[in-house]
Structure formats: C-alpha cells, structure tokens
Write a structure and sequence with these properties.
The chain has 163 residues and is of the alpha/beta class. Strands 5-2-1-6-7 form a 5-stranded parallel sheet, sandwiched between helices. It has a two-stranded antiparallel ribbon with strand order 3-4. β3 and β4 form a beta hairpin. The radius of gyration is 17 Å and the shape is globular.
Amino acid sequence: MEQQGEEKMKKKVMVAIDESELSHYALEWTLENLGNTIHNSELLVFTAQPTTIDFGYTNNVLDPFCFTPELVAAIQENYKKVALVLLDKAKDICANHGIVAETVTEVGDPKKAICEAVEKFNIELLVLGSHGRGTVQRAFLGSVSNYCVHNARCTVLVVRKPI
C-alpha cells in the first residue's frame, strides 16, 4: 500500500531534445542540477521527427508534387533513425547518472509535438534547451522554447548554456 502511494507521488518530468548541443546540455544540466527531483520522478526524454525537409537554407513541406512517395518515405525513415539514435544517446547519458529514462518520439512540428506530449503523458515539468536566438531570428524562425513556455500545460524550465 505504501509503495502504491509512492508511485502516485512521483512527478513526471520531460526533457525535450533535438540534435543540437544545446538540448543535450539541457539534459545534462537537468540530471546534474535536479538530481534529487529526477531520482524521485519519472523521466521522459522526447524528440520530434520533422515533417519538413531541411535543405539548409529553406524548409519545404513534404509535398507529393515535389517529391516521389518513395523519396518522402525514405526521408521520413531517415528522420526516424536519427530520432532513435538521439534517444539512445540520451538514455546512455541518463544511465551514466543512475537514471532510467523512458524515451518517446513523435512526428510533427517540434513545438506542437512537445506540447501535445506534455498533455498525453501528464507531464508536470518540461525542460528545454535554448538556442539563444535574438529577437529578429525568433521572429522569422520561431522559437520552440518560447512557444512551449506560452502553450505547454505544465511548468516549463528553459536551460540556457552560459556563454
């Protein structure tokens, strides 16, 4: 009975990562600075698989008129492989800190996918890295962390790497 009560007391924490060094810094920071909280919580590491093709200078929506279905499928399969590698790396980082983490990936726009995962998994604390973009870049490119701060239905902690 006491153990059942302990399970109910556990908080759910989610760290959202991508392929950037800054998101992995946020994961490391969380494990090192929120260690006691994490040890007494359920940790979920999340990454989103994009629905766009990044050519480095522009994003194009996966459009059947521009790409063959086979090419689109191959690109999406590659995004899935990258996501799984990222999550495996994150699991190893967590294991090095004595934490067993659950990992999840979803397909979608990262900012929306993160907020949807917060609701789906009843997350109480969301941790994100910050790319440190300026006002102009955020206006044109958007900011995942800014979107999540305003739209996630939980407490959001944005970790920014010191300069």
